[in-house]
Structures are given as C-alpha cells and as structure tokens.
Fold this sequence. Notes:
Layout: H1 3-16, H2 20-31, H3 36-43, H4 49-89, H5 106-120, E1 124-125, E2 131-133, H6 134-137, E3 157-158, E4 168-170, H7 176-184, E5 189-198, E6 210-220, H8 225-240, E7 246-253, E8 256-265, E9 271-280, H9 282-287, E10 296-303, H10 304-312, H11 325-328
Parallel strand pairs: 1-5
Antiparallel strand pairs: 2-4, 3-4, 5-6, 6-10, 7-8, 8-9, 9-10
Helix pairs in contact: 1-4, 2-4, 5-10
Amino acid sequence: xxxxxxxxxxxxxxxxxxxxxxxxxxxxxxxxxxxxxxxxxxxxxxxxxxxxxxxxxxxxxxxxxxxxxxxxxxxxxxxxxxxxxxxxxxxxxxxxxxxxxxxxxxxxxxxxxxxxxxxxxxxxxxxxxxxxxxxxxxxxxxxxxxxxxxxxxxxxxxxxxxxxxxxxxxxxxxxxxxxxxxxxxxxxxxxxxxxxxxxxxxxxxxxxxxxxxxxxxxxxxxxxxxxxxxxxxxxxxxxxxxxxxxxxxxxxxxxxxxxxxxxxxxxxxxxxxxxxxxxxxxxxxxxxxxxxxxxxxxxxxxxxxxxxxxxxxxxxxxxxxxxxxxxxxxx
Length: 331
Ligand code: PHE
C-alpha cells in the first residue's frame, strides 16, 4: 500500500467535507475499526521484521497526520457554526429585554408620603425603639400599673432574665416617643415618629398583631385642639385629595385630655378610624419634668395600614403582611 498516496487522499477527502457528519464518515473510513489505516496495521503481520519496523513507523505517522487533520477540520466547523448561529441570533430591531425593577411596599410608600407632608408643614421625623420599657410605654404616659386603661393595649411582654430587671415589652404604640423626645428636647417642637407596634390580640379585617403607627407631637406655648384640627385637615387633603372628609369625635386616652378619634370615609362610604389624638395631658409634662402648665401640645397616633386601606381600597389589613406579590405589585 502506498502510504503517501493514502495520506494525500485522506487530506483531500477531509477538505471536501461540508459538515460534521461528512467529516465523521471520512474519519471512520480511514481511522475506524475497519478503516484503511486500521486494516493496514493488521496486515503488518505479513511482513518481515525489518519491513514491519519501517512500515509500522510510517503507518503511525500517517495515522497521526489524518487524526490531526480531522481534529482541525472539526474545530473549523464548530467555530463557523458558532459564528453563523450568533450572527443569525442578533436582531437589532427587536425590542430590548425589560429589566425588572423592585419597588417599595405599599406601607413604606404611605410612611414616606406622610413624612413628606409633615415635613412640609414644619415637622421633623425622629425614631424610637421597638423594644420599649414599661416606663415609657405606660407609666410616663399617665398609665400606672394598676390603671384599667392598660387593658386597651394587650401587650407582648419580654421575659425577664433577672428577677429585679425592669419589665420590657414590644411597644404597643408609638406614644412612648412623646416622653422620650420631651425629656431630651426643649419646646417649641414639632415631630412625627413612624414605627412598628405590636399588640397581643386577635387579628381581624382592620387589626393586625403587628402594625405601623406614626406618632405626631406639637408642643408650644399655646396649642389648642383647633391647631390639631387644622393640621389633620391639611394632612388628609394633601394625602387623599381635596375632597377628603374627616370626622372628629370624643374618645379616651390616659395621656391626652381632651381625647379624640379621627375617622375617614373609605371607598364604600363607611367611617374608618385612622387615628387617636388629643391635647397632651399635664401628667405627661409632669413625668418628663416640665413645670406645670407652662407648655401646651397636641399628640396623635395615626394607623399606617388604615391609611393604606383607604388610599388603595383594601378590605383586609392582613393582606399587607402576607407577602403576596399579586397584591403588592399593584401599587
Ligand atoms: N397611642 C394611641 C393608640 O395607639 C393613639 C394616640 C396617640 C392617642 C397620641 C392620643 C395621642 O391607641
């Protein structure tokens, strides 16, 4: 067998291949089990020892050359394939892929909007702790341990690690920040304090055991309920629009006197309570060490979920805490 001839033919055949399957076929023809080269190897046995040596060496070389050429050709095919595929895939007239952006939770949006509005009318935003002491959550707010009004706030108490330790709790409202802020700052002052609150009670359509409140506090030499009414009307119109209707009726809180409840109409036309409020009780000023009757103020605590319910027409506050994207993504 003329090995030079075989090698030449093989090279031509490989070059002629138009695709991978033709190349495979050709490779098999030369290098496969019954291929030309393999058959030549098996015929070496018929030769003399010295011929075996030289022919065998040559055959090895030819086999290596063919294998090399097949490999090279295969590489060419694969590169071309990749190129032609990627060329055909780029359609510059196609609209781009939309990048998905996250967005704010409706409650976060409400809080930020309320903050913006109150900042416009001269209030600063401050924060206080969620883990509160019994003192700030109750005592400083004119609710001593034996006061029946403590029942209004079903409380998650924190277990004491030492018997003498003061009692801690998850704040049941943002009102402790009235005392906290008054202790450290000098009136005149205007603040709002947004934050999460917790109550150990059954949930329903309008109550969660966890909810957000925004406390408001304005203290000056002369502050009346009329000032409160003006602020809350202004706020509701800015938040809900010029037609927003509010209703103020008497209520009771130990830390305000007089106390009121503010309600708004929801989309169904029903009144829904959105906040408790009133004039700061003299005992609160006393608890923070102010001289009696020097300052006056109003305070309020507005329910963030209630605002969201009215603004977005939700009928169950608990939906806001279930992480259901079908709901959340609507806002
Ligand atoms: N903290 C009261 C509540 O959660 C609301 C309130 C705040 C009432 C401020 C009066 C003044 O029920």
